[in-house]
Amino acid sequence: MQLIRILLILVIAAVTTSLNAQSTANLTMREKMQMFLQQDAFIEPGVGFRQIRLGITFSEVLDIWGAPEKEEKSVLPGSKRSWFYKPEGVSLIILSGKDTVDTITVRGTPASIFQTLEGARFGISPDRVLRIYGEPSKEPKEDLIRYPELGVEFAFANQRLGQIDIIEKDI
Predict the structure, then answer these.
(1) How far is CA 76 from CA 53, 73, 95, 96, 137, in A?
(2) Which of 9, 98, 157, 171 could covalently link to 162 via disulfide, CB atoms 3.0 to 4.6 Å apart?
(3) Parallel/antiparallel/unpaired status of strands 42-43 and 115-116
(4) Are 66 and 33 in contact (CB under 8 A)?
(5) Segments making up each domain of the chain, as ranges
(6) What is the 3-state secondary structure (H, E, C) of the chain?
(7) Threshold 0.85, pTM exceeds
(8) Distance (Å) of CA 144 to CA 9, 116, 118, 130
(9) Distance between CA 115 and CA 60 in Å, rounded?
């Protein structure tokens, strides 16, 4: 009886794996990017996401996430560009920099899947961010708490976390 259960579990696992491979084979790059982003929900201060990190080139981003939904470039020579990705209806990711990504901005609502590794989720209060990260080295403002030594800034609207900026750490 135990052997039959094990064989049944192995058959179900094989069929599920096969169906998952077939179901992702026909997805567009945007759909694949959305699936990946939904799995890569943690933001590391001073670093970024698991695959999209500060310092990565925009051509590498293109290979990993595909073309952005929107791109903005300044008309000034040597200026930054910004690529916009909307992986879910309640979040927006903006990658900014000249040739490489030097800022990752994530905007979201309490329904967003994204959060920092330490647990700062969209919709929390400034007091909660202070409890998670401690007192910042820069004096907090009503709508902004900065931790340049960690490489992260938190922006608030109506006393709720609405934006996380990942920046290079100040050393």
Answers:
(1) 25, 9, 18, 15, 33
(2) 157
(3) parallel
(4) yes
(5) 40-166
(6) CHHHHHHHHHHHHHHHHHHHHHHHHCCCHHHHHHHHHHHCCEEECCCECCCCECCCEHHHHHHHHCCCCEEEECCCCCCCEEEEEEEECCEEEEEEECCECCEEEEEECCCCCCEECCCCECCCCHHHHHHHHCCCCCCCECCEEEECCCCEEEEEECCEEEEEEECCCCC
(7) no
(8) 51, 16, 18, 11
(9) 23
CA dist 32 and 72 (Å) reads 23
List, in order, residues 6 or more apart from 81 with CB less than 8 Å away. Answer: 58, 71, 72, 73, 74, 96, 97, 98
Q: Look-up: residue for tokens 């938190």?
A: 154
